[in-house]
Amino acid sequence: MPARVFAIALNTFREAIRNRVLYLLLVFAVAMISFAQILSLLTVGSEDKIIKDFGLASIDLFGVLTSVFIGIGLVSKEIERRTVYTLLAKPIHRYEFVLGKYAGLVLTLLVNTAVMTLWFLIILAVKGMFDPRLLLAVLLLFFQFLLITALAVLFSCLSSPILASVFTLCLYAIGHLLWSLDLLQAKLKGGAARALCDVLYYLLPNLANFDIKGQVVHGLPVAAGTLGLAAAYLVLYGAAVLSVACAVFQRKELQ
Amino acid sequence: MAVLELSGVSKSYRTHLSLRKYWILRDLSLSVREGEIFGFIGTNGAGKTTTIKLALGLIFPDGGSIRLFGEEATSVQARRRLGFLPENPYLYDYLTGIEFLDFHARLFGLGAAERRRRVRELLERVGLGNRGERQLRHYSKGMLQRIGLAQALINDPELVILDEPMSGLDPIGRREVRDIILDLKARGRTIFFSTHILSDTEMICDRVGLLVRGNLKAVGRIDDLVSREVRFWEVGLKGVREQGLPCGRVVSRRDDQILVRVESQDELRRVLALVNGHGPSLLSVTPARQSLEDLFIREARGEAPSAPEGARAG
Amino acid sequence: MRPEAKHQARRMPALLALVALGAAILVQGLIEARAHDRSAVHPLLYLPSGKYLKVAALGFDDILADLIYLWSIQYYGDYAIQERYDYLEKIYTEVIAELDPRYIDPYLIGSLIMSAEARKPEMALRLLDKGFEKNPDQWILPFEAGFVCYDNLKDYVRAAAYFEKALKVPGVHPLVRRLYAGMYERAGDKRTSLREWAEIYETAGDDYVRQVSASHVHDLKVEVDLMDLKDAAARFRRQAGRPPGRLGELAARGLLREIPLDPEGRDYLYDRDRGEVSYRGSLVLAR
After folding, report:
1. Beta partners for B84?
2. pLDDT-based confidence at C1, cuts 50/70/90?
3. Which of A9, A191, C10, C60 could form a cystine bridge with A104, CB 3.0-4.6 A?
4. Overall pTM surpassing 0.80 (yes/no)
């Protein structure tokens, strides 16, 4: 089983690397990070914050875009373009296909994030403002990408590329706005309505768990165990999402 | 032993917006025996590709069962001994020929050395020996069909399923594919392929199955299905005056050549007798038998179109 | 594979999904439990200035402003958070105002929080100044500022200045004029106040306003008259070395153009011995 998953993962990675969209996104990411440098010239006072803020935000943004679009391109497109037929006629389980795809995407995101981070670190080093906690922030962002990609894979198994992109992006937005559910709950009176808020709050992916950008940039303390709990959340929620994806794909009719 | 067996298989689909069911296959039963070449013919849209997808576990039947080597079609183990080439295969165009075959080989758990050997061997066999390094996006249609075939054979399968394998190939390509199929049979493999080009089947198939609108209209050896009696002869003559013909009907003429159709041995003899003396010469004698095409057209036209399920049910 | 085993295998992914999700929820619960001082590290507190946020918001500035504003109301309503006012100015003046300068509510609520709760009236005035700068058509902003000066700072002169600004905006509520008038009164400038109230009386649209303004005019006239008379009497005394015998002498001397009559048309009372001028009636409004 692992050999087959690995074969698919490797193939997926190869496809991603040879995909022009990936490079386009990378170029833009690098440009944005560089732009921070220019912006910082406009500010009065410390340029520290601007560069760090912008750098992290760029990595965040482009990482998310890569997770969504490359993820969907590589799975949804494959299902739509039926390259998957020859693959599934081989002695592989359907879930191996899903997991293999995901593994390939993880690898792709690793390389992608590494390149962006490297460029970011270079800029920081040149200005002498390196802070190891920034790496921690990037690591958590990487966890976020992994979760978003899992969602992208799930939606790819469910619907067409365009719909899958829309759904994934919506969940991304919702995942960052869960605090509003909290607030809403405080305003509601009925027990059932409040319970519904609770249910939604815990069911929806809580992407705020992966966001410590503000804390790191402002030099505030990051609670011990944040990393561990975020990793645990990623693994568990991600496993749930991928399991559903496998279940869906198992039953899917490949017309 | 039946290598592939469908029993009472039915498959329907609904379009997204309507509630009506359309039956693609209805109560289809078919079995393919070990070592034979089975040609699956039918009109476009008859359900040939659907049948193949059911056999591969890509889609699931509404009713009935499908077994490969005695196992459920959806079982992973059964597919170990199977090779498949889809119609108009979409392939990973960013891979080179070698990478493509190697990838598929890995899925069988073959070791690196073994993979290299087989990839090389198959590329030669399908005539792509020196094109392995190029990316598939640069392959012509014929080349894609060949690499697709190579992929189907990478595991030396006992059963090879091909969906329209000759489509889009030039005569040379088609001859090569035919040769590969015959070669597989010689090695004791079973081949099941679908096509709507009848001459291909007539040349190589042991048995055929004719699918018309989801129903299997005929299945068996071609000789059994199609009467082999000669229906008429066409005799090509030169230098004969039409008025001088004892019998028969002239079906075409050019300059001083005519083509005469005769319906019986007797008439044939009488026409041929014209040539015995000096003067007229015999150009050709061609017997015409009922062909598979005749059977095909008769069956395809014969049945009145059936009303869709929902309309009848009302 | 035997049928039963196959069924189990098919159910596996679904089962796994449920278990994993359940565990994920537990982890989330843990995260929530630990972050109970999450207010202290709430990411919204560390937003970059609105100018930069605008760039990031990619055109969704308005929505972003809305969201932040909504969040802020809840945040500042949560009295358990001790340090919640630390970033008050930042949130309202630098972020929301920059993201959506024409959104009026945050200026009003923000200034309210700043003046009434955080007790930082100058901060409130800065916010309202910024608001009015971006929305010169909103009289309510300088009005609110005037109110802050009046109520919190007890600076009636400044309040009056703000109300004057508000009055310049077309469509301003008539009440503002009355407040403006009142400010001058409070500031001690009864003359201007009287003038304003008289104006209000002249332009009053309804009986209530007419009545209120009439009262103010009445009382202020008395006060202003008495002030003028006392003033003139004092000057007379300095010039003549003695207090005037009658009020009429003030006019004769040219210290007053004419001797005012009280609102009822009667003379003001003059007590020569004590040197006091007084009004024989009573003021309408209790002072």
Report:
1. B161
2. very low
3. A9
4. no
